């Protein structure tokens, strides 16, 4: 049940962040993320390095989305702080995503050789959806170039986050197997 709560709560963070940005409510994503993070502070939730992953994801997200804005590949709605710095609403998505990696998205960290290439497709797709359906992101450069750069950034970010989640998530009773890809 906690896995589903984690998954659904992150989806709510996504909708609050993207929908809020689309309507100029820059603080909706960060507020939803803070509620999500508060849920993770409950005593019955095993943290397994969640907050270490969160800080790492924030650094990767800041680098990715600042690069995108500074290179003129994308522009973000409700950009607080101002461009070319990654806006707070999108950083709340990166931080929220990190809080799923040892919970509802644990399967991602258990199969990095499978998931890392998939992230190079799914990550940019979420930006495309945020751009086309919500107007929270504007892709300025040719779509192929912007999505290609995002794909490369997500490939690297997911590789780093998968390996970090395996490292931070290890404990005496929940260590993960050492091979990068488990047998089915």
From TrEMBL:
Keywords: Membrane, Transmembrane, Transmembrane helix. The chain crosses the membrane at residues 12-39, 51-73, 79-101, 113-130, 136-161. The keyword Transmembrane helix applies. InterPro entries: DUF2878 (IPR021306). Pfam families: DUF2878 (PF11086). The keyword Transmembrane helix applies. This is DUF2878 domain-containing protein. It comes from Dokdonella immobilis.
């Amino acid at each position: 049940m906690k896995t589903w709560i984690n998954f659904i709560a992150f989806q709510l963070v996504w909708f609050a962040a993207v929908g809020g940005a689309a309507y100029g409510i820059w603080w909706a994503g960060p507020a939803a993320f803070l509620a999500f993070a508060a849920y993770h502070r409950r005593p019955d939730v095993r943290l397994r390095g969640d907050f270490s992953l969160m800080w790492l994801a924030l650094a990767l997200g800041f680098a990715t989305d600042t690069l995108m804005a500074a290179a003129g590949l994308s522009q973000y709605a409700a950009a607080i702080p101002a461009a070319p710095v990654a806006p707070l609403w999108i950083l709340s998505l990166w931080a929220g995503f990190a809080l799923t990696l040892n919970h509802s998205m644990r399967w991602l960290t258990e199969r990095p050789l499978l998931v890392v290439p998939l992230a190079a497709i799914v990550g940019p797709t979420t930006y495309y959806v945020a751009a086309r359906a919500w107007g929270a992101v504007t892709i300025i450069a040719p779509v192929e170039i912007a999505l290609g750069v995002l794909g490369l950034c997500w490939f690297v970010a997911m590789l780093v986050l998968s390996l970090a989640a395996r490292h931070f998530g290890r404990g005496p009773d929940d260590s993960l197997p050492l091979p990068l890809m488990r047998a089915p």
